[in-house]
Write a structure and sequence with these properties.
Elements (H helix, E strand, L loop, with lengths): L2 H4 L10 E4 L6 E2 L1 H14 L4 H7 L5 H8 L6 H13 L6 E2 L3 H6 L6 E4 L4 H11 L7 E2 L12 H10 L6 E5 L2 H10 L2 E5 L12 E3 L5 E5 L5 E5 L4
Parallel strand pairs: 1-4, 1-6, 4-5, 6-7, 7-8
Antiparallel strand pairs: 2-3, 9-10
Helix pairs in contact: 2-3, 2-5, 4-5, 5-7
């Protein structure tokens, strides 16, 4: 148990629904993403470290539009990158405890809200042994990705709940900023972080110390057991 976990305090309130980011939050796809974005950077003679420093948590198309040299078709490049990542999911794994957490949630009480395209989300979730949910928002569903709040607002709308009555699970600054702008509460998941995350929100390494109970109205209450 980390120091972060030992000091973790679960929210004292219940929620209508949970909204989960995917990469770095439900599963670890960091090695795969690094390989694909490194190949992209090398194809276009871009500084690899800079590319890797800005690509997390946002839609690939938006990163590529910022970086691609003149004359490069960002849409075609984003599609090529997606196909490259879909073909490279052999070492994608769940964040510990994620599958058990999701299994306790009613399908109408949680949604996936990811910056990945739908095809990539399906491939990575399958590789990690995680379900593709009944409700989801992917990069294909919004014109403005994180840090804009649009994806989380749409996720709440698809569940039929108020964004302010949602708990968002995120791992990046862009995602947390989007959740804040949507008016949701946030827990930061740090399983893939190499250093402590500077955030005013509660942080947890993974899901193994957490469980969820439901009240008579089906609202979700997070429970924390530091000895689990």
């Amino acid at each position: 148990m980390s120091l972060t976990e030992s000091s973790f305090m679960p929210p004292s309130r219940s929620y209508a629904a949970f909204l989960f980011d995917m990469d770095g939050t439900l599963l670890n796809s960091i090695p795969s993403a690094i390989r694909a974005w490194t190949r992209f950077a090398q194809r276009h003679d871009l500084p690899v470290e800079h590319v890797l420093s800005i690509m997390h948590g946002v839609r690939a198309i938006e990163t590529i539009r910022r970086l691609a040299p003149a004359g490069v078709d960002p849409v075609a490049e984003a599609e090529a990158l997606t196909q490259d990542e879909i073909a490279d999911v052999g070492d994608v794994v769940e964040i510990p405890g994620a599958a058990a957490m999701l299994a306790t949630l009613p399908p109408d009480r949680w949604a996936l809200v990811t910056s990945a395209p739908r095809a990539l989300a399906r491939a990575r979730l399958a590789a990690a042994g995680l379900p593709f949910p009944a409700h989801s928002v992917t990069a294909d569903d919004v014109s403005r990705g994180k840090p804009a709040p649009d994806a989380f607002l749409l996720g709440a709308r698809r569940l039929g709940v108020d964004p302010a009555d949602c708990l968002v699970w995120e791992d990046t600054v862009a995602g947390i900023t989007a959740a804040e702008a949507a008016g949701a509460d946030v827990i930061a998941v740090t399983a893939t972080h190499a250093a402590p995350m500077a955030t005013p929100h509660a942080t947890i390494t993974d899901y193994r110390t957490l469980s969820v109970t439901q009240d008579a109205d089906g609202r979700l209450m997070l429970q924390f057991d530091p000895e689990a």
